[in-house]
Amino acid sequence: MKIYAHRGCSGTYPENTLAAFRAAAELPIDGIEIDVQLTKDGKMVVIHDERINRTTNGKGYVKDLTLEELQKYDAGSWFSEEWSGEYIPTLDEVLEIFQDTEHILNIEIKSDIFPYVGLVDKVINLATRRGLLDRMIISSFNHEDVQKVCHETDAKSAIITSQIYVDIYDYARVIGTKRLHISLPSAYRKMTTEALRKGSIVYVWTVNSLEYAQELQKIGIHGIFTDYPERMLKELK
Ligand code: G3P
Ligand code: MG
């Protein structure tokens, strides 16, 4: 079962910061998950929430602030004073860390609340320019964007969901992918057993307990996203 660092090593470093990704880059794990949004001036930044309130000392929506404005805020001290120099990184800064590693890069397009028109194209263009497209999985809760990736590129893609489906394998097939990134409770649903039987590639988020990870491995789940990749690596393999 593959191990992916969720928002970098987000259990031990402030999530989605260069510190969290540098730590993940040092580990012999399979991949990294990276949340991406667009700033007011159309730059790709790595942050999970649509608002910066929880993970910085600022306030407001990512979409309403320019890159320069966003990067003035501290994105580390909410987690621990030790990380007070961290800021919201651009996607390009994060990709630079992984330019010469072998990790798979799962870019999550955060376009399910705000549409972030043009974000998919920008991600594809940057990945292509850096020669990283064949090491990427592009995923989203916004399945129209996943369909766009499937229709317009050769990139690997995945739908993300925490919903219950009667036949999620067929649903994903219509979109154009076999990859499902599902929430932990969904992993124990009939839909998941069926999808695995039909040939879906299923990754589960967010798995921080070893007991759950071992159970998921037993039922044939292909990968997990965890905030503690270093611990999972040690205990699971
Ligand atoms: O991509 C898997 C997982 O990260 C989806 O949920 O809210 O942590 O971005 P979230
Ligand atoms: Mg995510």
Automatic annotation (TrEMBL):
Pfam families the record matches: GDPD
Positions of the GP-PDE domain: 1-236
Gene3D superfamilies, alphabetized: Phosphatidylinositol (PI) phosphodiesterase
InterPro entries: GP_PDE_dom, PLC-like_Pdiesterase_TIM-brl
Record PROSITE patterns: GP_PDE
Cross-referenced PANTHER family: GLYCEROPHOSPHODIESTER PHOSPHODIESTERASE, CYTOPLASMIC, GLYCEROPHOSPHORYL DIESTER PHOSPHODIESTERASE
Name of the molecule in the record: Glycerophosphodiester phosphodiesterase
Organism (species): Planococcus shenhongbingii
